[in-house]
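User: What would this chain look like folded?
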Amino acid sequence: MNRLWFDVLLFLLAGCKSFTLMNFKSMTNASYGSAQIGDPWTAVTLTSCIVNCRIRFNNCFSVVYNEIHNLCTPGGKITYNVSRGSYQVGDKFYYTDHCNATQGYKLYVYKSVVNCFRLTTNWAVYPEAKSNCSAIGGRIMQGKTRDSLDLFLSFCKNVYKTYTFLGLTDIVTEGTFVWEDGTVLDPTWKNTVFYSGEPNGGSVYPNDDCAVCGSYSGFSSVFDAGCLRVPPEEHYYICELVE
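Assistant: Here's the prediction, encoded as structure tokens.
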């Protein structure tokens, strides 16, 4: 059986699996990898490697395929700064989206950030945004690292181009900002997250308890704003998948 027909047969056998071969992308950056989830096997083509991996493992989201030895190594979800083991000449790493597309999530790979985000298209007050994200297994996007904050600010500046909620509030205790996962904002990180002179506790309006990005800070950081006033305190928001 030639390689083409072998791949076609495998694809038909895998018909019950929900995936598209073209969704697998080549990754050349060695900072990204995945945990091996099974023993390697001989695969005559990359296509058969991917199809076999998806047939054998429900959690197959990546493969290492050696084009010289036709060796297929199955892997899980792509992560950042993970050792992929000892590489041989001919090894190539391929990965695919592992997000719940039915809920509108999409995988974003940005420096050390590898996660599923849903860029919502509706405006909401903060409690509504929080509830909407929770209903689809997520939370309002946080910015707890430099890379995740930069990604959030990029979404704000280049996608929404207007006010967007960050998953950070001091609703419970005035002056104590807490991330959506319940951790308190590190004081040493405060000046990085917030615009100069912010948070100011609401110099114009009281109870500015939410962190928001927008043109006021030049989309370079966030500032505190109201969570509940309608208008103008309905803002865009981004859901990040909680796994």
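The longest helix spans residues 146-160. If you want, I can go into more detail on any region.
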